[in-house]
Specification:
The protein is of the alpha+beta class. The protein has 3 domains: about 15-225, Aldehyde Oxidoreductase, domain 4, CATH 3.30.365.10; about 230-300 and about 365-440, Aldehyde Oxidoreductase, domain 4 (2-Layer Sandwich), CATH 3.30.365.10; about 315-350 and about 455-725, 2-Layer Sandwich (Aldehyde Oxidoreductase, domain 4). This is Isoquinoline 1-oxidoreductase beta subunit.
Length: about 725
């Protein structure tokens, strides 16, 4: 940590605006009610904050500096650049003078309307950030530009239609006059009215100057030089440290047997019991961890008692065989009738083990509660959520406006940090220790054993062919816990199959679950794409030819297929001992991936040599960053498909740290990952979760082509591969 935080001066925008010169443009997410306020006029500024609490999207200074506020979490996906870039594009701002700050965590003002028509959320999940904020940021940026144009027109007494903007400069061609945005500040006024800023009033794609260009990310320099602040870096005066012992079995209740002994440990300040854990507060983290090891706890039974993950698949198979409807996700035509009248039928079960998020930065939060327990300051790296105050007001019993959340950079999220359990735990400890600030830290062992996992599941996929050899039915039953966590990605909207049925059959084991990158797509797209190749292999047809026919009504999906085929030289034979496999995925954006693999038949280890991806994500805001996200998604997909698994015996997680939870290593990375972005003027779609779920299908399909055998259980560990090869 570089500097102590005695107060949140680097984050609190009220203080930031008061201490900075210039003008704040108060433009809400709806694009309504813009107000100009001089940042040196504290009385006026205070009045406007009361009317429009911390609602400025942008601040200008007289020297031309521009601060744009980012409402999304930044966990390496580039939102700290992409969203302000969209605003700056419409504002015609000089990007070299733009600085970016996190916006306050106030969903009514900064929430995205892209989640639902009835509510706005600040929720950086589901690859929805750029997609949901694109129109909002464009409209707000266009309004900021209009304020500047209107003010210049009044200042020069010329029609606004005669003015142009470029790179933070307004010009009037008739008179040759020019004025920079900073120079215009003394003359800024509020327009009497605003255009609607429909598609006609905002820029055409062909006129973009920033969007679609490779613009360096704003936060990278600070991450390189070490000045970037993550929650783990936060240090406050008089700060104490909290840890929890949660046990090995999810939901078990503790009884502490040695309270007095623990309180005598060096530095221990307080013991705080939870329903599912024992909390400790100490003067230092080291003291807290030492005392944690000395805890003697008697644990109750729990829902997960007796549960064995490796043995449960036989029960899942029986559940799938009952042919119950369960929760129907899609039903088109009549799969049963098509099955009865088919010329050939196929059926296969695919399995998927629990997977851990493995985010690099340990879960942690710093919270300081006021002495009267009425206010709180929170420093956290969060993917936010339905409650932007992350459950803290409920813990303290105070109004939401009394809690100020200072969002920090995230050292990895992948869905885990969209759950606020670690924030709420810290709030409980901080309430006990008020007014001392408390830092709660989950160790890696804490998070692995009491984490929230991608659910295990079984997919029973059945398909049939008609008399012409065409696929005429496709049935997909997923068995597992977690609803959308296991059932997303089960639809086949881009495949023209006349009869389709998909459903979810629920199981419950008392194991904590959460969204994991691409959610249910990882397991379900693997099952779908593998089944298609099994059919193609049996029918002795090219898997690409099969998909071409199925994509006949989906030209954008088909374009990604054709581009991936071209990039990978699909029709050219692979080197001896290698084979290529293909997989298509829709997760907001559309993508087709091709990989080339080899298999060591003595060890069972699969090596991915090359990966090619063609992606249609609509308008691309940052091309280089999209490619980086796709590359990261491929690596994460390989890690989960080849190595990662959580196993549970008698309700207890067996893995404890990265010594026994295996992740992909540098030596296992592909020699190359090539990505082609397809030009599009469609609304931007998410890219952070498209490449990950295509990996398992592409690898299994390459394995089928190479060996003639099918891989059906993720991960494809060497032991499982050897079993298949020797079967």
């Amino acid at each position: 940590m570089k500097n102590d935080l005695s107060k949140p001066s680097s984050i609190n925008r009220r203080e930031f605006l008061k201490s900075s010169g210039g003008i704040a443009l108060f433009i809400g997410a709806s694009g309504l009610f813009p107000v100009l306020v001089s940042c040196t006029d504290e009385k006026k500024l205070k009045e406007q904050f009361q009317k429009h609490p911390v609602s400025a999207w942008v601040q200008l200074t007289e020297n031309g500096d521009i601060t744009i506020y980012n409402p999304a979490a930044e966990m390496g996906q580039g939102s700290m650049t992409s969203l302000p870039l969209i605003f700056a594009e419409e504002m015609d701002a000089d990007w070299s003078k733009v600085q970016v700050e996190f916006s306050p965590q106030e969903s009514e003002i900064y929430g995205s309307p892209g989640w639902s028509p009835d509510s706005k959320l600040m929720f950086t999940v589901g690859s929805r950030t750029t997609n949901s904020y694109f129109s909002t940021m464009r409209k707000a940026g266009a309004q900021a530009r209009y304020i500047l144009l209107d003010s210049a027109a009044k200042h020069w007494n010329v029609p606004i239609s005669e003015l142009k903007t470029s790179n933070s400069v307004i010009s009037h061609e008739g008179s040759g006059k020019k004025i920079s945005y900073g120079e215009l500040i003394p003359f800024l006024t509020t327009p009497e009215s605003f255009p609607e800023f429909t598609e006609k009033e905002i820029k055409k794609v062909s006129d973009f100057n920033l969007i679609g260009k490779d613009v360096p990310r704003t936060e990278i320099p600070s991450k390189v030089n070490g000045s970037a602040q993550f929650a783990i870096d936060v240090r406050l005066p008089n700060m104490v440290y909290g840890v929890l012992e949660r046990g090995k079995r999810h939901g078990a209740k503790p009884t502490l047997l040695n309270d007095s002994e623990i309180l005598e440990q060096p530095g221990i300040i307080k013991i705080v019991p939870f329903d599912y854990a024992i909390g400790l507060v100490a003067e230092t983290l080291e003291q807290a961890l030492l005392a944690k090891k000395a805890l003697k706890i008697e644990w109750s039974e729990s829902t997960s008692s007796g549960f064995n993950s490796d043995e449960i698949y036989s029960d899942y198979e029986k559940i799938a065989a009952q042919n119950e409807k369960g929760d129907v996700i899609t039903e088109i035509g009549d799969v049963n009738d098509a099955w009865r009248n088919s010329s050939k039928t196929y059926s296969c079960d695919f399995k998927n083990d629990y997977v851990y998020h493995a985010q690099l930065e340990p879960l942690n939060t710093v919270i300081q509660v006021s002495e009267d327990l009425q206010k709180a300051e929170v420093w956290v790296g969060s993917q936010q959520g339905a409650d932007t105050k992350l459950g803290v007001p409920g813990i303290l019993g105070v109004p939401s406006e009394n809690v100020n959340v200072h969002l920090q950079y995230l050292g990895g999220g992948f869905g885990r940090r969209s759950l606020s359990d670690f924030v709420e735990e810290c709030a409980v400890l901080a309430k006990e220790m008020a007014p001392k600030p408390v830092k709660l830290i989950w160790t890696r062992e804490d998070d692995l054993r009491y984490g929230t996992y991608r659910p295990m599941s079984l997919q029973r996929v059945k398909a049939s062919l008609d008399s012409k050899g065409e696929i005429n039915s496709f049935s997909h039953t997923v068995v597992g816990d977690g609803g959308n966590l296991v059932a997303s990605g089960i639809r086949n909207d881009h495949y023209a199959i006349p009869n389709q049925f998909a459903n979810w059959l629920e199981t419950k084991h008392g194991v904590r679950l959460k969204h994991w990158r691409s959610v249910g797509h990882g397991a379900n797209k693997f099952a779908i794409e593998s089944m298609l190749d099994q059919i193609a292999f049996d029918q002795k047809i090219d898997p690409v030819a099969l998909r071409r026919k199925l994509m006949s009504n989906s030209p954008r999906a088909l374009a990604t297929l054709e581009k991936a085929v071209e990039m990978s030289n699909w029709t050219e034979p692979s080197p001896e001992g290698r084979a290529k496999g293909i997989s298509f995925v829709e997760h907001g954006s559309l993508g087709t991936g091709v990989c080339e693999i080899s298999v060591d038949r003595t060890t069972g280890k699969i090596k991915v040599h090359r990966f090619w991806i063609a992606l249609d994500a609509g308008i691309i805001v940052q091309p280089d960053n999209v490619k980086a996200q796709m590359e990261g998604g491929i690596i994460m997909g390989m890690s989960s498909a080849l190595q990662e698994r959580i196993s549970i015996v008698n309700g207890e997680v067996q893995q404890s740290n990265f010594n026994d939870y295996s992740l992909l290593r540098m030596e296992d990375c592909p020699d190359s990952i090539e990505i082609s972005l397809i030009d599009s003027q469609e609304h931007p779609e998410g890219v952070g979760e498209t490449s990950t779920p295509m990996v398992a299908g592409a690898i299994s399909n390459a394995f089928l082509k190479l060996t003639g055998k099918s891989l059906t259980h993720i991960p494809f560990t060497p032991e499982r591969v050897l079993t298949i090869l020797n079967s």
